[in-house]
Amino acid sequence: MQTTNNISLKPYHSFACEETASHFSIITCNKDIEAVATWSKTNNQPLLILGSGSNVLFTKDFDGIVAKMELMGIKKLNETASEVLLEVGAGENWHYFVSYCVQKGWGGIENLSLIPGTVGASPIQNIGAYGVEVKDTIKHVSAYDTINDTWVNFNNNECDFGYRTSLFKNAPNRYIISKVQFTLQKQPTLKTDYGVIREVLHDRNIKKPSLVDISNAIIQIRTEKLPDPKKLGNAGSFFKNPLIPIDQFEQLKNKFPQMIAYPTTDTTYKLAAGWLIEACGFKGIKIGNVGCYDKQALVIVSYGALSGKEIFDFSESIIQSVREKFNITLEREVNIL
Ligand SMILES: Cc1cc2nc3c(=O)[nH]c(=O)nc-3n(C[C@H](O)[C@H](O)[C@H](O)COP(=O)(O)OP(=O)(O)OC[C@H]3O[C@@H](n4cnc5c(N)ncnc54)[C@H](O)[C@@H]3O)c2cc1C
Question: What is the pLDDT of residues 113-124, one digit of tens each?
Answer without folding.
Answer: 999 999 999 999
